[in-house]
Each structure stands twice: as structure tokens, then as C-alpha cells.
Design brief:
Residues 8-245 form the Aerobactin siderophore biosynthesis IucA/IucC N-terminal domain. Helices cover 42% and strands 20% of the residues. With 445 residues, it is α+β, with helices and mostly antiparallel strands. Strands 2, 3, 4, 5, 6, 7, 8, 12 and 13 form a nine-stranded antiparallel sheet that branches. Strands 11-17-16-14 form a four-stranded mixed sheet. A three-stranded antiparallel sheet has the order 1-9-10, with no helix packed on it. The model has no long low-confidence stretch (mean pLDDT 90).
Length: 445
């Protein structure tokens, strides 16, 4: 089943983000926890399906006339039936409660302690009902094993993974349905971009609305569209980009090289043609979104899916919209953003929005492929950077009439000529600041 293939590629990743310090660290997990819950070990995880009283939760959604219980029962039918049965056996009417998935590690280490008052008063009721799931590339985003087309479940697992806390604040739970709707409108208005890029929407979220944020971030959930049910045709397979860099022991070649050769591109000239198509699709979506709309999606390896058909690259899919950055200067004149009230995503200084594009798309995604290809063909990295430069210049020329002339020149110089900023991740962690940069020579200049 194609959904199973796509899920298997999520578990293939063993190296992690090449720019994060302590990229595979999981501070808070024991060695046993790492084996039981990390995607590298392909574990089965049994989420607890608790019952929480409707009076203490908020439902974040952009779906009109939404009824959470009906929606949940549609996607998780067997678990829904077992949930009602478990409440009936306790003599509790389910009408005043909703089903809430909780990660077992989170239940044992945070929920039972922080929310003991809710449990004692039967506001939150733990039940012996589970959803059988498996982690994707992110250990806190999980897919149902009984229904591979059901929505992904994203939960707080309050450890420090890659030195960042993986709790899930209600701010993000409330924001992602709005961002999903916003991005869907953008793509509907841009057919030339939407044929190159899809998004995985997160239209439903649950959060606590009767407690402080420091507590609420440990008990929440959002549901993300499943890649198969929304985005893939019959012969297409989605591969998380981070998996393209994983090597096979027999050939010592990466998955990207295997796919490229399977499609018939085996020489340096063939690799140039294949990479050119790849870059055209990446920049024709992510760079266009930035230049036209002032939007930088977090297009790094883990948050990007490459869609292939018989080895040929078709398009990309963006996930985890909570990492989006939006230029405040573009927002003021943008009709599609009129109803958005998400000030934390608006950046007054475009260096931050551009920095997101340059780091996640140009460096972490395309730049790492340049290193991979140059190493495989034993050639200069400039050979493949030239492809990126040519395609970047092409996008600027195509979009010149759609971008303010002053901004067009500013962005052209910043992306193609000036030094690039790189986030100082280790320093950021020490001073608790996310926007520290150093600068390095521009590979496109």
C-alpha cells in the first residue's frame, strides 16, 4: 500500500538535521524510552484515548459546522466505539466528554502529575482504550496502523529533542488551522505554484482553555491531513526529503542517487538534467511564495515531502505549517491576509523571513543535495550550485512584474549577491534567542 511506503521512508532517517546541535538528542528519555518511541526503531506505540470534559477544552478548526465527535468517529471508528463502551462500563455518559489522544510517555511523566486535580474530579478520565500508531520522522507526530489513511496525530512529548522542548503550546494549536486555511487560499490563487507544491493541512486541534499556558502546553493535540488521502495519485510515492540522504550498505549510495538512477539518469550530464527539474520545482514554489507573498515556509528536509512517480520528481508537499514566517511589510497590502490575527508569525524585518528561506530551502535542502551529488560524481560543488543560481535568476525574471521594484532589487541582491545569513543554533540555545545569525560567502555569487 502506497501509504505504508511513504510511512516507511519517514522511519528511514537516522542522521537528523545536519545543522542542529545535538541533532538526535532526546533529553528526558531513558534508553528504553528511545527504543520504545523513536521512529528509527519502528515501534508500535499505543496512545491512550482518554475522555476530557467539554467544559475545559477549546476546539480549533476552520471547518464550518464542525462536530468533533462525528469527525473523530469517521476517522477512528473502532477506537470511538471502544471509547464509548469504556465510559459506559464506568457508568459515565459520553455526551459531556470528548476523546483525547495522549502519548503514553506524556501520560506517565506529565499528565498524571500536572493534571491530577482534573483526574480526581473526573474532568479528565484515563481509559484503557488505545490507538495503535507508529511515529513518523517526528516522534510526536504519529500515524494510525489500523487505518493508514487516517489523519496524523500530533501530540506534546515534553522532552528536549535537538535541545528544543517538544511540548505543544495552545498558541500553535489555535494557529495551525488558520494557517492551513490561509495557505490553501494562497495556493488556490496561484495555480502555477500549486502544481508544484501541496500542503498537508491541520484543520482540527484540541487545547485546554481553563489553565495557564505553562500547563496547557503539556496536554493538546492537532490532526494533520494524511499524505495519501489528500495528495497522492495511484502511482506516486511521497518521500520525506531527509530520507533521500540515507545510504544503503551494499552500494554506499544514497536513496536520492538510487531514485535518480532508477529514472535513467546515471551520468553527470543526466544528474544535471534531473537536478535542474528538481530545483525548478523547489524554487518555483518556495521562492515564488516568498517573492510574491512574503511567505517563507520551513522547507527543510524533515518538513518537506518529495513526490516521485517511477523515479521522476513530480512536485513537493509542505507539512508542519507552524514554522511559517510572514513578512509584515507584505501583509499590510495583502488582501488574503486581512482576517489573520497571528502577530507572532509576522516579522517586521525581512532578514528573518529571507533567512528562513535561505537556511531551510537553499542550505539545508538544496545545498545538502549539492554536496551529495558533487561527492558522488567527484566534481566541483559549483557545477550544481550553478543550476541553483540559474533557476533563481530565472524566477526573478519571471516574477519581475509581480514584485515591487524596490523590493525586487533588494531581494535579488540579498539572495544572489550578498553574504548569506546562517542561524547560530548553538549560540541561540545558550542565550535563548532564535534569531542570531552569522554570515558566510554566497555560493550563488
Amino acid at each position: 500500500m502506497l501509504s505504508d511506503y511513504s510511512n516507511k521512508f519517514e522511519k528511514l532517517i537516522s542522521n537528523g538535521n545536519p545543522y542542529y546541535p545535538f541533532t538526535k538528542s532526546k533529553v528526558g528519555f531513558s534508553s528504553e524510552d528511545i527504543i520504545n518511541y523513536s521512529p528509527e526503531f519502528q515501534p508500535k506505540v499505543f496512545l491512550m484515548l482518554a475522555a476530557i470534559h467539554k467544559s475545559v477544552i477549546g476546539i480549533a478548526t476552520n471547518i464550518e459546522d464542525f462536530e468533533y465527535k462525528n469527525w473523530f468517529a469517521q476517522h477512528f471508528h473502532e477506537e470511538w466505539y471502544n471509547w464509548i463502551l469504556a465510559l459506559n462500563m464506568k457508568g459515565i455518559h459520553h455526551e459531556n466528554y470528548i476523546p483525547l489522544p495522549i502519548h503514553p510517555w506524556q501520560m506517565n511523566h506529565y499528565v498524571e502529575r500536572i493534571f491530577s486535580h482534573l483526574i480526581e474530579n473526573e474532568i479528565l478520565i484515563p481509559l484503557e482504550v488505545t490507538i495503535e500508531v507508529s511515529p513518523t520522522a517526528s516522534l510526536r507526530t504519529l500515524i494510525s496502523l489500523k487505518n493508514l489513511s487516517a489523519p496524523y496525530i500530533k501530540l506534546p512529548v515534553s522532552i528536549h529533542a535537538s535541545t528544543t522542548s517538544r511540548s505543544y503550546p495552545s498558541l500553535f494549536v489555535k494557529a495551525v488551522p488558520i494557517l492551513s486555511q490561509f495557505m490553501a487560499k494562497i495556493l488556490d490563487s496561484e495555480p502555477l505554484i500549486s502544481e508544484k507544491l501541496n500542503i498537508l493541512r491541520e484543520d482540527v486541534g484540541i487545547y485546554l482553555n481553563t489553565t495557564g499556558e505553562e500547563e496547557a502546553e503539556h496536554l493538546s493535540v492537532t490532526f494533520r491531513e494524511n499524505v495519501v488521502s489528500c495528495c497522492l495519485a495511484r502511482q506516486e510515492i511521497a518521500v520525506v526529503v531527509a530520507a533521500l540522504f540515507e545510504k544503503f550498505p551494499v552500494s554506499n549510495n544514497s536513496l536520492f542517487i538510487h531514485i535518480m538512477q532508477f529514472a535513467g539518469y546515471k551520468t553527470l550530464k543526466g544528474a544535471e538534467q534531473y537536478f535542474t527539474k528538481y530545483v525548478d520545482l523547489v524554487l518555483g514554489s518556495y521562492l515564488d511564495l516568498y517573492l510574491i507573498h512574503g511567505i517563507s515556509l520551513e522547507g527543510h528536509q524533515q518538513n518537506t515531502l518529495a513526490v516521485f512517480e517511477h523515479g521522476e520528481i513530480k512536485r513537493f508537499i509542505a507539512k508542519d505549517l507552524g514554522g511559517i514566517d510572514i513578512s509584515a511589510s507584505i501583509v499590510k497590502s495583502h488582501a488574503l491576509l486581512g482576517g489573520i490575527r497571528l502577530s507572532s508569525y509576522f516579522k517586521k524585518n525581512d532578514i528573518f523571513v529571507r533567512g528562513q528561506l535561505l537556511h531551510t530551502v537553499y542550505q539545508s535542502h538544496l545545498g545538502e543535495l549539492v554536496l551529495l551529488l558533487a561527492d558522488h560524481f567527484n566534481c566541483s560543488e559549483n557545477f550544481f550550485w550553478n543550476v541553483i543560481r540559474d533557476k533563481t535568476e530565472e524566477r526573478f525574471k519571471v516574477l519581475k512584474d509581480r514584485v515591487d521594484s524596490v523590493r525586487w532589487r533588494t531581494e535579488y541582491d540579498a539572495i544572489l549577491k550578498a553574504k548569506w545569513p546562517a542561524r547560530s543554533y548553538l549560540q541561540n540555545r545558550f542565550v535563548n534567542e532564535k534569531q542570531l545569525y552569522h554570515f558566510f560567502k554566497n555560493p550563488l555569487n
